[in-house]
Write a structure and sequence with these properties.
Blueprint lengths: L1 H19 L4 H23 L4 H13 L3 H9 L10 H11 L8 H12 L12 H23 L1 H6 L15 H8 L12 H10 L7 H9 L2 H7 L5 H15 L3
Helix pairs in contact: 1-3, 2-3, 2-7, 3-6, 3-7, 4-5, 6-7, 9-10
Bound molecules: fe (ii) ion.
């Protein structure tokens, strides 16, 4: 079953390569991201001692979580939802249109669609079904881990402005985001003024991590240090770095 779903996904992506050009940068970016999120979700799931059935659902949610990105890029040439449409909902429409999940049980479909729908919301709403909540939390953590990987390569950011939403590469950063960080608040996307603000927003994500494994991986992979190194070198950023590392090291 999983094999068929993976095959559908790869054929679906191939369609966009045909339309936009073989190895089209932004399509490749989201294709690779998808496979990485699948791996991250499985790794995370294993540490949580999920059953095989739960792991299977976690992998399918990861496989389709950004399926809307391909149509979004094709139609609007942007990955910014506010300038196009919500890519999670667009993805659900595509899955429905192509009847991708029809061979799964109603319950499985509902769990997967819930995780996809809420993978990119600011805050997960209250969920009564613990399985839906768990799957959504796993997907969000796995997604963040891989988005941080993508953004680590700052050369890529410079070459490809769509990655950071065409924000200008101006010096300095917004003090409001620093204050959000100290208040353990996630900055909203509307407040970002330049590339540095975008990086600070990525740092805010540490406050929206659900599992100890993810925190450990953020530390182990040096994401915080690398992002801070690419920001203006000043005392304020050094202090933020220390503060965030400290936050991640203390178990919740
Ligand atoms: Fe997404």
């Amino acid at each position: 079953m999983l094999k068929n779903l993976k095959e559908w996904f790869s054929n679906y992506v191939a369609k966009f390569y045909r339309l936009l050009g073989e190895r089209h940068y932004n399509i490749r970016l989201k294709e690779q991201h998808t496979y990485k999120v699948c791996q991250e979700a499985i790794e995370l799931g294993k540490t949580l001692k999920l059953t095989n059935q739960e792991l299977y659902l976690a992998e399918i949610s990861a496989l389709f979580h950004d399926v809307g990105r391909f149509m979004q890029w094709y139609k609007y040439k942007t990955f910014q939802d506010s300038k196009s449409e919500n890519h999670a909902l667009l993805g659900l429409k595509e899955l429905e249109k192509h009847q991708v999940l029809f061979s799964l049980s109603q319950k499985e479909q509902r769990l997967i669609c819930t995780a996809i729908q809420y993978h990119n919301v600011f805050k997960i709403p209250e969920m009564e079904d613990p399985q839906a909540k768990l799957l959504t939390q796993i997907l969000r953590d796995a997604d963040k881990l891989d988005i941080l990987r993508v953004f680590m390569d700052y050369n890529k950011i410079k070459q490809e402005p769509s990655l950071e939403w065409d924000l200008p590469q101006t010096p300095g950063y917004s003090k409001e985001i620093i204050s959000d960080l100290y208040q353990k608040r996630i900055s909203s996307h509307e407040n970002l003024k330049n590339g540095n603000d975008f990086k600070l927003m990525l740092l805010c994500w540490v406050f929206d991590i659900n599992f100890a494994y993810t925190r450990e991986q953020i530390l182990k992979r040096g994401f915080i240090q690398k992002i801070c190194k690419s920001l203006p070198q000043c005392k304020e950023i050094q202090e933020i770095e220390e503060y965030l590392l400290q936050y991640l090291r203390v178990p919740v």
